[in-house]
Amino acid sequence: MSRFSESQDPLFQRINASIDFDRRLWPHDIRQSRAHATVLAALGVLSEGELEEILEGLKRVAGELEAGEFPFADDDEDIHMAVERRLIELVGPAGGKLHTARSRNDQVATDLALFVREHAGRAQELLRALMGTLLDVAEAHRDWALPGYTHLQRAQPLYLGHHLLAYFWMFLRDSRRFAMAAESTGDMAAGSGALAGLNWEIDRDLLAEELGFDRPYPNSLDAVSNRDFALDYLYAASAGAAHLSRLGAEIVLWSSREFGFCEPADSFASGSSIMPQKKNPDAAELLRGKAPRVMASLTTLQGTLHALPLGYSKDLQEDKEAVFDGVDTIELCLEVADRLLQGLSFNRERMAVAATDEMLAATDLADLLVAEGVPFREAHGIVAGLVRGAVEAGTGLSDLDGDSLSELPPRAVERFRERLEAGATIESKVSAGGTSSPRLSEQLQQARQALGDLSA
Ligand code: ARG
Known about the structure:
By secondary structure, this protein is mainly alpha-helical.
């Protein structure tokens, strides 16, 4: 019997069905059904024999899904109904007892939490691998100088190892955010029923333990309405995507002929269909280009949840494609970033030439004046005047004729020349966290330690 006298319009089915995308939840749905069946048997709703039949049937259904041989029917609305329909086809009336004491509302919330938890773990694994690669590449280029930039204007020189480690710390924070997202999947919705709880006193603690949750939600209405854990995941993914986009954008810039600082591996670049000379850093461009998709997934889900009445509304079905696209995009990008970095070659000479631009030592000269008792603001003005003179004369700071420098304390000028000659301005950044070699060594050690702690 059905409450309806007419069958569903195909157009209605098109907007209403989620089977085309939610089928990928099947491993979690089956896992949840197995645990649910066990709890039903403990309650006496299923006999031992029926439990056996259901578990056996679910195994067959899983086998079909795994092998891509599951016979989907036209009117399978979603994965939950498809699995149940097939189970009943395979095992008969016992299968019809499985949906006792549950609703698709608590079922789908549980499946999605399991899915998000799995992928929050996966993102942490991928980040760990990427951080390991970053650390190796940083170590291998620890004393390769390049200019650091602000406003994309040459600012002060850095070691490439230092520059790359900046990403290491971003990814460490991302990893922590994914860990927090995993933690917010800790509450189990199963056993909440449609919204108000069940007429059956099922053992939710046991169920939570079976499914690897930390605890059941204390409130059934919250349980079926909540998708915060997916928001948390997508926020972590968005922050990670933003970081990857900055790395990608820098690699794009650095691969240009104008910079010439690096070159992707041939296996990670494309040519042009018309311009034979081209080698394009597509992977790096796509790290930049895919980030907005992940951010869009976050705002999609925020939009879905905004002002939504408590309890299940069909709007919530829209959570899945946002989550799936966010997961697929960030996982792909993390993997690609790792491989891209592994194959990236840097041009030491090009970077060094750019880094020895004397203008990058202007702050050093100001600081040397300060050491001779000149107040910094005044020193800044003096050096700015020298820079202006050098720019107008088309020379470097150290080539300025004696006149310009003669008004300065001689010791400062002497020390400045010595420093330039030794190429030592980069080594003058001695504060903790600075780019000088001893500080960079400390940082490399800190990074190794942090990576080790993550793996522990
Ligand atoms: N396919 C649905 C979804 O993805 C499952 C829950 C349906 N619940 C309902 N009351 N119609 O959200």
